[in-house]
Design brief:
This protein is mostly helical. It has helices at residues 8-18, 23-30, 34-48, 53-78. 13% of the residues are buried.
Length: 93
């Protein structure tokens, strides 16, 4: 999210959105008003070029997670270690 110029607080709001929390739940967790959460979301939407929470989730997934999934598919096909996969118990690092 930092690549979009999103502040740390906006990133915190975005993480909670990605986890499925409501505006009220986010406000309670961050100890701010629901209005403040909405203002942060509005700023995140502007910076990322989306218009809704659903679009935000899609943007984050397709920009950051989907490429890793595709890379791991290629790694699995070629027998290379997966990124973010389970640790190999035989490795000593």
């Amino acid at each position: 999210m930092a690549a979009y110029g999103v502040t740390e607080r906006e990133q915190a709001v975005t993480r909670l959105v990605l986890q499925g929390h409501s505006t009220v739940e986010i406000a309670e967790r961050l100890v701010v008003s629901a209005h403040t959460v909405q203002q942060h979301l509005k700023s995140v939407f502007e910076k990322t070029g989306v218009r809704s929470r659903c679009e935000l989730i899609g943007r984050v997934f397709f920009s950051h997670y989907e490429p890793r999934l595709r890379d791991n598919e290629q790694r699995a096909i070629t027998g290379r270690p997966l990124r973010g996969g389970p640790l190999d118990p035989d490795r000593n690092d």
